[in-house]
Amino acid sequence: MYKKNTVAVVIPAYNEEKLLGRVITTMPDYVDKMVIIDDASKDGTHDVALNFQKKQPDRTIVIRHGENTGVGGSIADGYIWCRDNNMDMAAVMAGDAQMDPDDLVNLILPIYEDRADYTKGNRLFTGDAWQVIPRVRYLGNSVLSLMTKIASGYWHISDSQCGYTVINKKALQTIDWEKMYPKYGQPNDLLVRLNIYHFRVEDVPVKPVYRIGEKSGIRPLLIIPRMFWLLVRLFFFRLKEKYFIRDFHPLLFFYFTSFILFLIDIPLIIRFFVRWSRIGVIPDITALAILFTTTTALQLSLFAMWFDMQNTNR
Predict the structure, then answer these.
(1) From CA 70, how far away is CA 9, in angstroms rounded?
(2) Whole-angstrom Cα distance, residue 11 to residue 93?
(3) pLDDT tens digits for range 167-212
């Protein structure tokens, strides 16, 4: 326990036979339960988990998937176990040992002090992040973090893809984990759902850990287009759930009008280039129309984002 609060750590693991033992043996003593989710691993991950379960039967829970569900699906199943067993806090530490166990107490503290309902690690706070994190992943993470700010409404949150997190009992019992996105975009999906319910989220600096023998299956150049589409859908989902169904907000008019103007821009831009290529002269009226619609749409979008930011801060 951490100061009379029960703490569980969800450990999603897929083909992590080499590093899973390191995660388990370095787990802080105040952690009450380790919920290991073997996501249909093809190596000896399950055997490693079972061996540790025999050594610590009261502390180690092993759940094995018959089919691979993705990291999001594994985390959701771990959260469901924590919810059903009435845990006060549930953390997530990946089975690849890329999360420093010494940082866990810093993630727990804001929740214990009732300053946050959900804390997440931020590897970008440290000055060593650029040198430690592989460059392509660092840049891809930065792009996704910016997009996640817009989609989730948590403008103060960075390093959206960091899965080192802690969630409190209230949020654990509120979110519908059956609907959680099961793949790589799970942290982004969860931030959107937390914002819909007005939960408090706080970034906590954590140490980036790389080059310890982990093998990442993530391909940033393939992931980013897929994540872009996911974040677009999550953005509209949040607007509908938070600002239309639960609390009608005028920022919807700003966003809606800006989207209409951006759509009007498309045929205008096409006409602009067609006329220019045919007669070699820039059509004044078309150019002015593009300038007006684009400028107005950008202003309306920025106002809507500002309203969203103020509402989240409140």
Answers:
(1) 18
(2) 5
(3) 999 999 999 999 999 888 899 999 999 999 999 999 999 987 765 5
As beta bridge partners, residue 63 has 37
Residue ranges in the chain modelled with pLDDT below 50: 213-214
Q: How many helices (H) and strands (E) does the chain have?
A: 11, 7
**Whether the Cβ atoms of residue 45 and residue 14 lie closer than 8 Å to each other:** yes
Distance separating alpha carbons of residues 145 and 45, to the nearest angstrom: 31
- Do residues 71 and 162 make contact, with C-beta atoms less than 8 angstroms apart? no
What backbone phi and psi angles, to 5 degrees, belong to 36? -90, 125
Sequence-distant (≥ 6) Cβ neighbours of residue 192 within 8 angstroms: 151, 152, 153, 234, 235, 237, 238
Residue 93, number of CB atoms within 10 A of its CB: 28
Q: What is the Cα–Cα distance from 107 to 306, expressed in whole angstroms?
A: 28
Instruction: Say what the pLDDT of residue 176 is.
Output: 94
Residue 118 CA to residue 154 CA, distance in Å, equals 12
The number of C-alpha atoms within 13 Å of 20 and in the hemisphere containing its C-beta is 28
The length of the chain in residues reads 314
State how far the Cα of 163 lies from the Cα of 167, in Å rounded to an integer. 12
Cα angle, residue 161 at apex, residues 126 and 87 outer, rounded to 5°: 100
